[in-house]
Write a structure and sequence with these properties.
With about 160 residues, the chain is an alpha/beta fold. The chain has four helices and five strands; from the N terminus they run αβββαβαβα. α3 (about 115-120) links the parallel β4 (about 100) and β5 (about 125). The relative contact order is 0.19. InterPro entries: RNaseH_sf (IPR036397), Tc1-like_DDE_dom (IPR038717), Transposase_5 (IPR052338).
Length: about 160
């Protein structure tokens, strides 16, 4: 990206899976020798992972945009519907103006011809993005925080 002002106009996006009962992150416990299997040093599990949800979200330097739960398998048509129902509203809520730049990865459903035509018809500039580079997307940091908070809330609910 050319400069700091240009970066402020980027609306970053991605999808992620959040485990409802499984581990979203590694857990470590400090314990005394020979106490590994004491209940206070173990994390309960659910058979077969216990389920998950998929979400799409976006954010910019101004804050977070919409977050959408994805029901079922996402294909190009479902992705385009998510964009149609959430992208422009997110850009408006974040006061990005009409000349914002949209970031998405190179997943085939993102690059579908009908989706790219939709961007063109809406005059939305799509940021060129290198293949296989999720580590470059700052939304990965948001996902980490969300998954950590979600897991913390689960343990808090169990403690009540």
């Amino acid at each position: 990206m050319k400069n700091k002002e240009h970066t402020r106009q980027v609306l970053w996006s991605d999808e992620t899976k959040i485990e409802l009962f499984g581990n979203n992150a590694k857990r470590y416990v400090w314990r005394k020798s020979n106490t590994a299997h004491h209940p206070e040093h173990t994390i309960p599990t659910v058979k077969h992972g216990g389920g998950s949800i998929m979400v799409w979200a976006c954010f910019s330097s101004a804050g977070t945009g919409k977050m959408v739960q994805i029901d079922g398998k996402m294909d190009g048509a479902k992705y385009r519907t998510i964009l149609e129902e959430n992208l422009m509203e997110s850009a408006k809520d974040l006061r990005l103006g009409r000349r914002f730049v949209f970031q998405q990865d190179n997943d085939p459903k993102h690059q579908a011809k009908s989706t790219m035509e939709w961007f063109k018809n809406k005059h939305i500039q799509v940021l060129e993005w290198p293949s296989q580079s999720p580590d470059l997307n700052p939304i990965e940091n948001l996902w980490k925080e969300l998954k950590t908070a979600f897991k913390g809330a689960e343990y808090f609910r169990k403690a009540l």
